[in-house]
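Let us practice reading a record.
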Amino acid sequence: MRFEDRAWVVSGFGHGGAEIANSLGDLAWIAVPKLVSSGDFEVLERGPRSRSVRTLPATGDALERARWWERHIVEVITGLPPGADDRARPRPEFDLAVHSLGEREAAKAAELAAEGVSGASARTVRRRRQRYQALGIEGLIDGRAVRKRAPGSRQDPRVLEVLTMIVADDTWYRRTTSAEDYRRATGTMLASLYGPGVVQLPSRSTFQRLVKELTSKHGRVRGVAVADKDGIRSSRPGERVYVDTVALGIPQPLAHLASQPVLMTVAADELTMSVCTVMVHSSRRPLDGALLLARLCDPPALRDSDLGRREEAVPLIMPESLLLDRRLLRRPRAFTDACRHLGINVMSPAPLGKARGERFTGKLVSLFNAELALLETDRISDEASLIAWLQTRAERWVESFWQHRPQPELRTVAGRGAQPTPSAAYDACVARLGWVHLPPDANAVRSFLPSVKRRVSLNGVYVRGHRYDCPELDPLRAAVARASGAPTPEVQVRFDPHDMRQVWVQTGDTRRIRVPLTGVESWGRHSLRSDDESAVYRAGWSPPVNFIPPSHPVVDHDQERLTYHAQLPLLQTPFFQDALRLGQRLAVMNRVAVGGHDGLLITGPPGSGKTTALQELGRRFEQADRSRHPDHFLRVPVVYLRIQPCDSTRTVFLKLAELLPIPRLSRRTSTASVSETVRNALLWSGTSVVLVDNIFAVRPSSSSRAGPVDQLRILSDEVPATFVYAGTEEPGNSPSSAFRTGQGRLTHLRAEPVPYGTGWVQLVETLDQALQLRHHQPGSLVRLAQELHVITGGWPGALAHLVRSAAIEAILTGNEEITEQNLKLIAV
């Protein structure tokens, strides 16, 4: 290929990009969207996939018969046979301006009957015409000539699933394995998954035929081998793309802005479960079919102006077949004609395929609805801004959450060595096939977008209240300046209503200028996992995703090293271990408790590690619950709540409600209703641990009135969750009345300093080994263990704060080491 005025050879694909090499041996990695959107990109030499991978299922007489019918059907639809000259005129009985479609079908039936074709009635012509418009040439092939049972259709699907996974891994790593070895490996994995003797293996001869069928399909450019209830077949990304529309659940504070239900249309690849495009729109008008096709062939990832970042985006998957209901689209005929021009089949899904697609889109939209219920919704005042906000959130959520969500159905596609996520499945398919989809001609695709007529002013062009401008419009502006008050001609402007970051101004017959939105920085796309973490993960209290583990290698950039030393490893103190052990034991007891539930109270002075122990306890419960329920992402196993001095019982329960996957409650809701809603949400979301920090910050207003702590104690007896409280005991600050009355069911754990000795030295050694300073000598911090004990008083929290601060100070000053003098200058 040609890129940046140089010739390159594509040596591989992976992680959304291509590895390229030139004649000098230089290697480079470049994102596929940036590559194909480059102005000088050109394919110089094609590999084995020079044409479409879709093949017709018939050959010989059956295919010739279908071609014969195609010539007659095309004449009925267009008035002219295929390959007619541009100056040709239709025959009088097939003139579209004179005769209707039914009359043309009757004329064709009479013509075929006169030629002696048996059974050529108007009904037969109509049926073949409909099948051709839905399936293309494949709809005209006699099904009896291509009816063939798929290999493995009579075998247990569980055997095919495991065998396909093993063969896929061996093909990827270029390992040669005998059929007998595959048989033993398959039997071992089936026994571990379903139990010994539950799934029976086929005979050796049948198993050898299955292995031969799978090994012959893997590594081919036409597809990868997949196994389902129908047997073994070849598939590839884009072979079947399902399109469905589902109503969205608008958060309660914004529901009044939508006068009509808000819908979300999802187009998803059947093989990899990757979302090709997502569109949020009002139900006031049907979805524009041509706009849907334009977004499928030209996704927003190819339009971004900032493609230099290595950012995860939805991959480009060109559909071969679209499964949707055309009756729900606006301009269905234009949509079908455009699909035929691009070689895309449009089919109505079969009942089983429709049910499978509805389950897929239903699960996706339900997860997105849970995300919406937990998001902040400021600066939204009307329906248009609501739909624009939902569109942006949907695109970011798909990129950051759905594409990386494990799907058990993708185990055979992704292989054993990767998580079964849509992104991993797509990467595995690209690695096995050796090709990626390239977008069609951009000008042809953007002709499907809606258009308006606008005049180019000195400030650019205005579309839907937005101003667009760029230097390429200067020649048109010069024409405006020379007009001297005369009316200037209008230009055609194409735009995507779901992506208003740019428009395309047509300056000639085919040339279009991409004009960005002024102030486009505010429209930039970014991943939710980077600086706007997904609300589902936030509600589930997952650890920060940008955490760098202590075993991370030495990094060179100062900013990365500062972040690393601000997150040094947790210190495994006796108090810390006791808190984890007690929390786990109480959670098991409360899960099946009869009557009252037990709780845990953690106290200690500031810096003793109470909050750290609380958060680590929640993190471990979160990980354990996710491993037990990998497919239930609406579960919120852990809730973390921090109480402020100004909180009342009402505000505490409202904070709890905001952490659960329920619509935002109105401030006018009564306290009893809020409490009941929170109780039901804790039961429904499977919450097992409720962490309450800074518990002594608030006091009841009077001795006769119950405070937040009393209400939390009552709530803890109504749900099978373990309540863990943490607070600082100060002089005159004893536990509240709720703790005094329930002291028999509340385990009290008080933090104590670590005496100087082997345990303290081990804590210091843990921090010493984790330091990544350039001049740090291993063991230098251990030699200062006694001084550190004196400075911190034996408190592990103070020790961690002291070492982190000293490490950051060493990087900022350039010393790159921790000395005794530096430690004494830091206040603990």
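A brief commentary: The chain is about 40% helix and 15% strand.
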